[in-house]
Amino acid sequence: MSTVISTESFSNIVHFVTAANSRSFTEAAEQLGVSKSAIGKSIQRLEHNLGIPLFHRTTRKISLTTEGEAYLASCQSALETLQMAEMALRSKLTEPTGTVRIDLPAAFGRSVMMPVLMDMTKRYPHLKLTITFNDRIIDPLDIGFDLAIRFGPVKDTTDLIARKLNDQHLIICASPAYITTYGTPDTLADLAHHRCILAWRGGAPLSWRIRDEGGKEIRLKPTPFHQISDGDAMIDACIAGAGLIQFPEALLRPHIQSGRLVPLLSTCNPAPTELNVIWPRARHLLPGVRFIIDELIELAARKAFE
Question: What is the reported pTM?
Answer without folding.
Answer: 0.64
